[in-house]
């Protein structure tokens, strides 16, 4: 009985072996990627669309029938449907083109068919349909959304409309803000930054700091302040809120410097000129001079949102070690063009902690100002070699 059963199974086993061998041979032919091998693979592989689709690429003058053959073999082969749709659009058969593209999207809910339809309705100047498919493309994309944003900006220069219609997800809103900044579309960026900041999480912190940085560098201090203070309120930065009443942040160097990132915004930015080592470490900042440093160099600076025309006082303590003559160190107030508006007297060498204060008036006009600790050799002095320490800084309006 068992022998009869084994004999009965032999035809099925042989059929399975034959079918597997046939598919393996068809796959080998497909990978050879010649017109002859693809035609034979298509014959041996009746349920697969890929050989016919590849023939459409190799023989563009015969592409239409090969694409039709591909989708007839596999109706779920969406690439075949939208390639047929694009060919119909080129010939001016817009009704058929739309039907074919919609059929591709019906079989494939992923990014590419939605992106193709968004482009189609953009070219056909049909805004409502464009926005619908652009939104679906944004929701389906897990990669670069910049081409979609560029297309949307061709429809409208209103970033709020784009944010409303296609970038509702937090990730896409963040990507859209970064896109605007990278494209230098700074005037359009603040409304989008507010949307991102409204429900910001830790993943949003870098791009929002970058926004504040770009606004400062463009001179838009109010926009930079608004987003910085929202980050502070949300606990996404340890630094406190900043204003013209409280223009200095991280005054005691208690928090990790954001200067370690590309966008420190209102935080300190220690510089490392040749021959000088600047080390902020709570509660002080230490500057070590080798004696071989440049004649002039910035040591440490921070953007300060001061009120035009108002007087301010900078206070703190300092001391020096091993500096026998002039320190060549002073404070400056500098604009973005590098023009010095105010400068303090040079610090004298002092081995013990010594109080200092410097009063100055914020210049008229708007824009970003930098509070800079500078080393510049006074005439008749030598470059210092030794240490310079600061602590207890405070900047307040008078």
Write a short abstract of this structure:
The protein is α+β, with helices and mostly antiparallel strands. It has helices at residues 2-32, 35-44, 50-58, 63-73, 78-90, 94-107, 111-123, 127-140, 146-155, 159-165, 170-182, 189-198, 205-218, 221-233, and strands at residues 269-270, 276-281, 284-290, 296-304, 311-321, 329-335, 340-343, 354-361, 369-376, 385-397.
Any descriptors?
about 400 residues, alpha+beta, Serine Threonine Protein Phosphatase 5, Tetratricopeptide repeat, Jelly Rolls, 3 domains, five-stranded antiparallel β-sheet, about 45% helix
Task: Provide structural commentary.
It is built from 14 helices and 10 strands. It has helices spanning 2-32, 35-44, 50-58, 63-73, 78-90, 94-107, 111-123, 127-140, 146-155, 159-165, 170-182, 189-198, 205-218, 221-233, and strands at residues 269-270, 276-281, 284-290, 296-304, 311-321, 329-335, 340-343, 354-361, 369-376, 385-397. The protein is elongated, with a radius of gyration of 34 Å. It starts with a helix and ends with a strand.
Secondary-structure topology with pairs:
Elements: H1 2-32, H2 35-44, H3 50-58, H4 63-73, H5 78-90, H6 94-107, H7 111-123, H8 127-140, H9 146-155, H10 159-165, H11 170-182, H12 189-198, H13 205-218, H14 221-233, E1 269-270, E2 276-281, E3 284-290, E4 296-304, E5 311-321, E6 329-335, E7 340-343, E8 354-361, E9 369-376, E10 385-397
Antiparallel strand pairs: 1-4, 2-3, 3-10, 4-9, 5-8, 5-10, 6-7, 6-9
